[in-house]
Amino acid sequence: MTISRRWFMAGLALTGAAVPAAFYGHRQWTKPDPTITPGEASFEVADVAGQRLADTLRGVWQIRFEGRDAGLEGLPRDGLELFLDIGHKGRGLVGFLDTAERLRSSEAPRYQVLGDVAGVKPAQLSWRLLSARGSCDYEFSMALDEVWAGFGNAGSGSLSGRVLDLDRPLMMTTQDNRFVAVKKVFPEARERTALNPPLLAWLTSQEHRLFHQLWHASRDKWHTLPEDKRDALRGIGWQPGPRDKERDARGTRKDRNGSGVDFFFMHRHMLGTARSMQDLPSWTRFPLPQPELARDRIGFANYFDNHDGTALPPTWLAEDDDEYSQWVSDIKTAETYHSNFQVWESQYRDPRYLSKLTLGQFGSEVELGLHDWLHMRWASVPRDPSNGQPVPFARDPADFSARWYAPENDFLGDPFSSHVNPVFWHFHGWIDDRLEDWFRAHERFHPGQVSRLEVNGVQWFAPGRWVEIDDPWLGPGTHGCSATPGLQAGKSVEMDPETMKLALRITFGEDEKKLQEGAAAALVCAEFEGEAGRYMIVPTLCVGMPQRTLRVRLWMGRRASRAAFPRRAWERSTTKPATHPQAPCTKQCSPASATASVVHSNPAPHTVCVASPALSANPRPPPHSDFGRC
Ligand SMILES: [Cu+2]
Questions:
Q1: Could you give the domains of the chain?
Q2: Which of 30, 61, 127, 210 is the most exposed place for a label (fewest CB within 10 A)?
């Protein structure tokens, strides 16, 4: 799930500047003579602006008429809706207008809309209304609310205009018949196929959101991280896979390092837990694209009502990043369903295709291809949960403000929130089911070469020729180094929210140059030599945080630098105020005084002091066993 601003616009500007003058001359030369009627039709599709206008108009609108002569003959005044449809890259518009009820029944609608958006401006639209007699009875001329148009179709906006009775002679006084149509906001999947409260509580918890984000981020970014950041992550147990044999998901060896096995395994593990709380059936096939209104009006209505929670949320616009906007829009087209998704659907159920792949190759291919695209195709515009405003580029990956933990934050394009969306479970179920197809394929073509094995409570496969690794990575739970208990029962301090936030800040620190400024001094309160190497203590106390410290092992002979731990990372990593009546530590941390001051003033009973009370009595680190198998 890569969401990044690209250099597209800059590139375009450069190209534009380099266009030779001869090109302009050529255009002048070949410009059609406007006085001559074109003899033949040419193939014309909507340009980007036209496609965006179409995206905005397509859907279900509530319409009401106002004025002295308000209304249309034969229609009631209330409860009216307008269905509008335009093909992808199309320029013709069709629609129906009637009561919401009748539009969803088998009875023919009383009015049909006929129009086009060829060469029109959003401020000057005009369509005709055909009655059951087949004649053009009315003309609608209207404007699209431009403020709303700025967000693409992510907002709720309006069309407003006038109605002209085409049977009424032009010489008569104009009638006062106006209308306002408001587009119905797309109902999110959670409004249709909600997750049950216990499951939702588990998924939206700090621990789970951070775990899922960090699990993906660590392996997605690992190949891009400098060595000191990698060591920083190793130090807090969040390297992807075994120490020094990490398995990145997007580097040059991604398809050979077993990362694909991790991908399949972690999600099967997650699915198992979720399914113990709620029945979450896999999709049996990828949901079809939007039905055409003219062919299947009821199907169209169901689709825009998102009746079964599988309809595609509309695309959205990201200001100043046309390439990104185009990418989101392309992934959501019906063409992409036919060109990519149907091919994946076929290949990943084809024994001949699957039998050639190791589990790691298969996992890596699915993760980077189909999986990423499933996430974006079914993603709805990201919104700020505090006010519902669209935030086209989504939450900053290192922003852990309380509002992002709200259950409405189920944006599928961010692993912090994607697993909160019901659709996630249905398509991850589909992906998971393909593992069984893969197993059957190998049974058929290489009998006996893949065998089943239970790993960490998950039905899995024994390592061998087709299964690269025997230790699928579930985070520090399987490959961490601390045996110090954390806040969660049965889990180490490495799984604590504050540790995970720190790891995320390290991972995304590169993207946030500002965090690097003046890095060294304020961060490390103490460093000391211990039996198993050199350690440092990262305090949270001095900044009004819950009173905990995290001891991080500095790997001897490696380059984990202080700078690898972003300055102020911990200050920014929570929005909860300290819960202790005790005054925050005001002492300036320094290597000389900090060990004592941090530890002595850290007696809060419900918190875990990793720097350990033992240290206050005797400033030596606890024995090596504290670090488990590290
Ligand atoms: Cu995931």
A1: 48-185 (2.40.128.30)
A2: 30
